[in-house]
């Protein structure tokens, strides 16, 4: 959790909106507006002078340098700074792009004040804040990817065996392959299915009826 007061940078090309957001955030008591910027370039220039916020409320659509470009620079040069995106629209493509780039939160500009406060609180505690529409886009994207995944017979056999009590070495013996090859199957499936554990492989197999309970 970040130490209080939590320093906020507010980046948006509409001055009236910035003023309203600044007043709202300051009213939450735990936060301080460190600086404001009208576009991504102003943000990057200010941070390069050593004025580094804890959290950035970053608009997507801005002149000179938009939020997507700014987020890319931040990810490369200041990965410790947490970013919450501000947007007017439920743009599925940009939502997915920004999530992949590691933004910690996403807010529509017509969000209620309590949603803004909740987003700041969660992100300051190291958590993520994605409202329902972001989650919906992520699930839709994930499911569409799974529908296009093609598995070969040996990968399917390996997946079925992960649902047993066999160790990876015993799976290798059962499939008559080396442990190294089993590791290769596992790592390839982790990448292909966007899964990080054996439990995830088993759940995928159950969902796709490769394993029957």
Automatic annotation (TrEMBL):
Residues in domain Response regulatory?
Answer: 7-124
Q: Which residues form the HTH luxR-type domain?
A: 144-209
Q: Name one GO biological process term.
A: regulation of DNA-templated transcription
Q: Which GO terms describe its molecular function?
A: DNA binding
What CDD domains does the database record attribute to this sequence?
LuxR_C_like, REC_NarL-like
Entry keyword annotation includes Transcription: yes
The record, for InterPro entries, names: CheY-like_superfamily (IPR011006), NreC/VraR/RcsB-like_REC (IPR058245), Sig_transdc_resp-reg_C-effctor (IPR016032), Sig_transdc_resp-reg_receiver (IPR001789), Tscrpt_reg_LuxR_C (IPR000792), WalR-like (IPR039420)
Domain of life, per the record? Bacteria
Keywords attached to this entry? DNA-binding, Phosphoprotein, Transcription, Transcription regulation
Q: Which residues carry this modification: 4-aspartylphosphate?
A: 59
Q: Which SMART domains match?
A: HTH_LUXR, REC
Record flagged with keyword Glycoprotein: no
Protein name as catalogued? DNA-binding response regulator, NarL/FixJ family, contains REC and HTH domains
């Amino acid at each position: 959790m970040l130490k209080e007061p939590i320093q906020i940078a507010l980046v948006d090309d509409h001055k009236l909106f910035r003023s309203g957001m600044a007043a709202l955030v300051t009213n939450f008591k735990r936060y301080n507006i460190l600086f404001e910027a009208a576009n991504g370039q102003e943000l990057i220039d200010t941070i390069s002078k050593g004025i580094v916020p804890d959290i950035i409320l970053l608009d997507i659509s801005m002149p000179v340098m938009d939020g997507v470009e700014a987020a890319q620079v931040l990810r490369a040069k200041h990965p410790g700074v947490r970013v919450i995106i501000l947007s007017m629209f439920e743009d599925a493509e940009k939502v997915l792009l920004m999530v992949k780039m590691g933004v910690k939160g996403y807010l529509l500009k017509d969000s209620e004040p309590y949603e803004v406060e909740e987003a700041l609180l969660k992100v300051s505690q190291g958590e993520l804040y994605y409202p329902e529409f972001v989650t919906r886009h992520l699930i839709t994207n994930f499911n569409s990817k799974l529908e296009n995944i093609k598995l070969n017979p040996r990968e399917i056999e390996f997946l079925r065996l992960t649902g047993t009590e066999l160790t990876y070495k015993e799976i290798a013996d059962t499939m008559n392959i080396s442990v190294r090859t089993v590791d290769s199957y596992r790592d390839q499936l982790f990448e292909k299915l966007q899964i990080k554990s054996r439990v995830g492989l088993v759940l995928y197999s159950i969902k796709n009826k490769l394993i029957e309970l």
